[in-house]
Amino acid sequence: MKEKKDDFNKREKNFSDNVYSIMRKKKMSQKKFAKEIGISENTLKSYLVNWSIDNIKYDTVMKICELGKVYPEELFGEQMNQNDLEMSELLQEVSKLPDEEKNLVNGVMKEVLNYAKCKNSMNDTKSKK
After folding, report:
1. For burial by CB atoms within 10 Å, which of 4, 11, 95, 99 has the most?
2. Secondary structure class of 50 (helix, strand, coil)
3. Cβ contacts of residue 40 below 8 Å, gap of 6+?
4. For residue 55, what pLDDT is reported?
């Protein structure tokens, strides 16, 4: 259990460090940065100082990423391989689609994931025999 808590704290620290880095690069105060991403300065401070990012909204993360020109995974300190980068780019493009098309893509992705899970399950069963 301690390991999960340590991972969570590391993720929050990475987030805080990376947001501070973006603010430095952009030469922005916390007040200006908060306004730019559409949150209050107090909310930003709670993310950065208190590490209370467990309720951060997706839109806020995406605005920070857009402003800092980083991927969400990088913002939280995770390393990305080429497949992750390509998938993240595709998801960013999907996010720009109208809702009806997003729903279609979402349905297709669910079917692909179900197929992959079934295939992996069958392979696991075969390898146990």
Report:
1. 11
2. coil
3. 34
4. 81
Joined together, the tokens standing for residue 44 give: 């930003």
What's the CA gap between 71 and 80, in Å, rounded?
Answer: 9
Locate 24 and state its tokens: 């430095």
The three state secondary structure string of 96-125 is CCCHHHHHHHHHHHHHHHHHHHHHHHHHHH
- Cβ-based burial of 14 (10 A; exposed 0-12, middle 13-18, buried ≥19): middle
The reported pTM is 0.59
Q: State the Cα torsion 26-29-34-40 to the nearest 10°.
A: 180
Question: pLDDT digit string (tens) for 35-70?
Answer: 999 999 999 999 898 877 888 888 899 999 999 988
